[in-house]
Automatic annotation (TrEMBL):
It comes from Laceyella tengchongensis. Pfam families: CbiX. InterPro entries: CbiX-like, Sirohydro_Cobaltochel/CbiX. GO terms for molecular function: lyase activity; metal ion binding. Keywords: Lyase, Metal-binding. This is Sirohydrochlorin ferrochelatase. The keyword Ribonucleoprotein does not apply.
Amino acid sequence: MGKRGVLVIAHGSKNKDWVHLVDRAVSQAAVDAPLATSFLEYVPGRSVVQGIAALKQLGVTDLAAVPLFVSSGSTHIEEIRHLLGVGGEFHKVMIQQAVPGDLVVRLCPAMDDHPLIVEVLAERAGSLSTQPAEEALLLVGHGSDQIGFQERWQSMMESLARQLQAKLGFAAVACATLLPDNVRQQLLALSTRYRVLVVPLFLSEGTFTRNKLPKRLSGAEVVYTGQAYLPSPLIPHWIEAVVREAWADKYGQ
């Protein structure tokens, strides 16, 4: 058995507060191994290549890579797969692999409909609700216009919708995406019958939650705060859980 290490990989942002929230969540994860956080773009000196190099200097030979992404339907997951040398054709012309041949890599799943993510969203939706039997919950994610990726987004969101409706007792739970853009369509269908609560499926607050989504909600009577997954104490626990699952799957412990 080699020396284990963990690399959390996020998209990155020019907004320092966004990066700080990611760093804080990762720092709170109780992982008994060297831990680093890297970003795909916008954060100088924190690339995946640099993160791997830092972990290798600490003697890491067995890497659990955690994609801090809302959905496995993100095309960035394919980018990460290729970057880590564990498959992925989508971006292979655009980037070079970052993993040296003596490093064993296990790529963990994205957040998707993990039970802890369901709990995060239940907290978000529950804080907006007053009479769930008379309310509809609208989950809004980024989505994708690419074949295969769009279907993964839809499947993940439908699973979240089913679980949240069963847990919280809303009259209806529906899903919408910004790409393809069907937010207004879903909102109008719900608002004729119910008080509508809107919960964004985004890692952290930013342009999408503060500008792009509110524009689509403009003029409609909805309850929306824009609160994203972070900050939530459950996100560090999610990191811990997927790392445990990756190592249990490999080592049986």
